[in-house]
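TASK: fixed-backbone design
INPUT:
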């Protein structure tokens, strides 16, 4: 049960808790993600202050990262059981203990990278009037086809609110270089994942709103990215079909993937994350302008 306090919850508090439901985040990552909030935070210090209030209320908790980032060893925040029930209702079935407990040290780099990517996507999407209206947490989604299956590192859907019947679904593979690229025997190889995604995604027709793309993001080099994409080209049954979009984490975080073609498809095309077209983009300098990437 949440602790009693005099802090009144706001719409922005619910936006914070929704972010933490997607993935653990640091105050800096939440500050980035808040650019999509109805009322963005003006400074990271204000995020920290609000997180402290949510912890006092019993809705969120903080744990230390065992990595040096943001100039120091940051803390990441997660929902408590009370925080989860606040979002989904008092009668909601709670996820397993791991959802609420500390992230294992071996997964700190991986989790931090996913959160940085999600925060950046949410913030840049808002500039193009795009929303992330659905998100499945790491390992919460199982895609099965035949005797093979894969648990993505996340899944999300992007949509223009004016076109809700035309979503853009993605599953996320965040690569830290720990998996072999080519191996028919290794159950954790990227080759096996490519084959599974190829079989699973091909079940959907081209215009099916459930047909997704695999967003492959590596924390390693451009050379490893090209190795993965060339492997995908060699393995999928229809090499002209787009299955993978790939990019390095550094490249994606340094720019706007909705405006700049910084993702490479398995068939060699440089693309934006989704087609932006002539949509109105918010600009902090000149108000609102039209832009065609």
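OUTPUT:
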């Amino acid at each position: 049960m949440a602790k009693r306090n005099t802090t009144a919850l706001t719409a922005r508090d619910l936006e914070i808790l929704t972010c933490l439901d997607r993935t653990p985040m640091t105050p800096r990552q939440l500050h980035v993600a808040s650019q999509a909030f109805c009322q963005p935070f003006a400074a990271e210090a204000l995020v920290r202050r609000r997180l402290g209030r949510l912890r006092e209320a019993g809705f969120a908790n903080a744990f230390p990262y065992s990595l040096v980032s943001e100039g120091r060893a940051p803390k990441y925040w997660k929902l408590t059981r009370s925080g989860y029930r606040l979002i989904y209702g008092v009668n909601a079935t709670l996820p397993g203990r791991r959802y609420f407990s500390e992230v294992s040290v071996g997964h700190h780099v991986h989790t931090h990278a996913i959160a940085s990517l999600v925060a950046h996507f949410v913030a840049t999407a808002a500039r193009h009037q795009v929303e992330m209206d659905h998100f499945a947490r790491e390992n919460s989604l199982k895609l099965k086809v035949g005797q093979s299956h894969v648990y993505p590192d996340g899944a999300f859907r992007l949509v223009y609110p004016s076109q809700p019947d035309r979503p853009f679904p993605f599953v996320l593979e965040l690569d830290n270089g720990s998996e072999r690229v080519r191996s028919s025997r290794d159950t954790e190889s990227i080759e096996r994942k490519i084959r599974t995604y190829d079989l699973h995604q091909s079940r959907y027709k081209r215009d099916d709103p459930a047909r997704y793309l695999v967003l492959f993001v590596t924390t390693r080099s451009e050379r490893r990215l090209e190795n993965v994409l060339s492997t995908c080209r060699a393995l999928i049954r229809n090499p002209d079909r787009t299955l993978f979009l790939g990019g390095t984490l550094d490249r994606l975080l340094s720019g706007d993937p909705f405006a700049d073609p910084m993702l490479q498809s398995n068939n060699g095309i440089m693309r934006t994350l989704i087609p932006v077209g002539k949509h109105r983009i918010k600009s902090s300098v000149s108000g609102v302008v039209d832009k065609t990437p």
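COMMENT: The chain has two domains: 1-105, 128-293.
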